[in-house]
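Annotated sample (chain length 247).
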Amino acid sequence: MAEEHVTIKKSTYNKILAGLVVVMVAFSFSLGFILGGSGKTAVNIAAGSDLAPVQQPSVPAGNQALPGRVQVSLDDDPQLGDRNAKLVMIEFSDFQCPFCERFFSSTLPLVKKEYVDTGKVLFVYRDFPLDSIHPQAVPAALAAGCADEQGRFWEYHDKIFQNQASLGDTSYKAWAADLGLDTTKFNDCYDSKKYAGEVQKDFQDGSDAGVSGTPTFYIGSPQKGYIEIVGAQPFSVIKQALDQGLA
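Output written by the structure step:
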């Protein structure tokens, strides 16, 4: 019996070989993604936020978080609500960010009324000034720190967001007077940039947690870790996360 031969042109053979290489590379990449993924599953909705350069999240040594959650430091930043509340909500914010103002005016009042004032949630404010696009973000944070020194952070926080179009040195000092603060003490604090290190620490802690835009929220607890929500989300989105955390 005569042997049968199949003849393939060299150009066709090279095309087939190249195709096989592409398939193998794609398969290897997919397998590496599946096996080597971080495992972080968080609510991460970037719409409605001002963005910073993306940072990779890290977990501080000595802390543990449930799978799919991250660990975030509360530091000693301003807090609203019961410190023994079951759930903690941390906001990383920028006083000049329009989306942060939107959260302040539209969503925070509802969060405060339904969850903070009822003792269910402890709300924590931390600074994440995007000074590359918001030149008044750091100065405003410094001014708020000086108001906090006199026990009036939240009133000053509200004043800033209510007058976001008027940020500046003159306004910061005028608002301190409006709130009845010791203006000499406030002005010395602000002019010396007394809380620059604290603001920078907040920013670094946010970067370590994975913050890449403002506002960014973390909902959970120090014991179990936190889920992440990004952007000025409607109250319904925040409510769903809070209710799940309280269940």
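Annotation: The first helix runs from residue 10 to 36.
Annotation: Residues 1-18, 20-46, 52-63 have pLDDT under 50 and may be disordered.
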